[in-house]
From TrEMBL:
The lineage of its organism: Bacteria, Pseudomonadati, Pseudomonadota, Alphaproteobacteria, Hyphomicrobiales. InterPro entries: ATP-dep_Glu-Cys_Ligase-2 (IPR051680), CP_ATPgrasp_2 (IPR025841), UCP005522 (IPR016450). SUPFAM superfamilies: Glutathione synthetase ATP-binding domain-like. Residues 73-449 form the Circularly permuted ATP-grasp type domain. This is Circularly permuted ATP-grasp type 2 domain-containing protein. It comes from the Bacteria. Signal peptide: none annotated. It comes from Pelagibacterium halotolerans (strain DSM 22347 / JCM 15775 / CGMCC 1.7692 / B2).
Amino acid sequence: MGETKYFDEMLNADGSIREPYRILGDWLDGQPKQALKQLSQDAETIFRRLGITFAVYGSNEATERLIPFDVIPRVIAAQEWRRLEKGIEQRVKALNMFLWDLYHSQDIIRAGRIPEKLIVQNDAFCPQMMGLNPPKGIYSHIIGVDIVRTGPDDFYVLEDNLRTPSGVSYMLEDREAMMHLVPDLFHKLKVAPVENYPENLRRTMESVAPDNCPGNPNLVVLTPGIYNSAYFEHSFLADQMGATLCEGQDLFVDGGKVYMRTTLGPQRVDVIYRRIDDDYIDPLTFKADSMLGVPGLFDAYRAGNVTLINAPGTGIADDKAVYTYVPQIIEFYLGEKPILKNVPTYNCSSDSERAYVLENLEHLVVKEVHGSGGYGMLVGPASTKKQRAEFSEKIQARPDNYIVQPTLALSTCPTFVGKGIAPRHVDLRPFVLVGDKIRITPGGLTRVALKQGSLVVNSSQGGGTKDTWVLED
């Protein structure tokens, strides 16, 4: 096999600079290596002071780590962003319609467009949600869509995160750090702002408050607590939008309504942005031994006395096996062709496709249907013979438990690595809010694979982040 050619987001094939990067390229040319090194150290100081860490499970080192931050921003042209925005909006609309249908009349199953067993036998499907009408018909209010780029006009959706997508605090803090570090660059470029995200989140939450909500809705962020890997984000978002950060024990249900314990007595709660998985939110309805949830919460939700963001059962729409049907889902509900492409995906339940996969594992990426964070996956080109043999056995034992995709030629962006500036692979997670309207923050979180040649951008696997600059016209 010849060497794979990657799309360089800054440089044309002849080495000239692409237009969106022209001003940044000139600026980089004028920066001695020492200056970039100093900027990186200053950035690290800022993040240490803010205490932005994430927990790493199963590592022998200290469990709290700073996510590495790269000081060279990623730039997206205005017209590129407009196309992405349209594609993302189309996708989240269709997925919310799909969730409504699944928990009501299941027309898409009856029409034979998606197999029934893929839904009803799926752990992410929540039968308790059948027939329940969430406020404004919205199931997933906060969505992170993972997008990769392989060419000037080629964007693919890698996955949709409709349960409890994380990372928005890094997007906001990366921007704040960059505004502090390189204010001169912001003066030269018209960069779309991201800092109104908390305000937009607040508006979105208020817009889906229960109909019987008296006065201004009381908003809460429900966290599993300080030992959760994204606890920093939970407290940061609550603080930024003026909501109260609560753990399960701070809330109780009385007379079908949810209350928060306060020093001034019980206070009614109207909207809960929960960062706790479905199984743990209510021990009376879901996992009986959960210490994280609120007994009776689901009944209060079912009665229409509180809104849960995101709704239980949304995970069925971001299930990796359901992902392969998203193009059909868009066509079924909207009658439109998908604007953003899915990554071609092999179905291991099909004998011929499974045979192809098993013969070509060294060129493919295998993902566990319920895996996340870069765990439970095999990146063929970077794998050992032993790892491929193990995955081959797993796929043959449980073909429906894995999806397999070609190794994508992820685009690269200039990145400051100890020795200087070098291309590194990136992906993008834009954040979408769905309430009285759809609000998409321009840009999102760019994750970067810091190891040379690596395609795995997850922070749990050694990836870092960059600020994402969407240029305004």
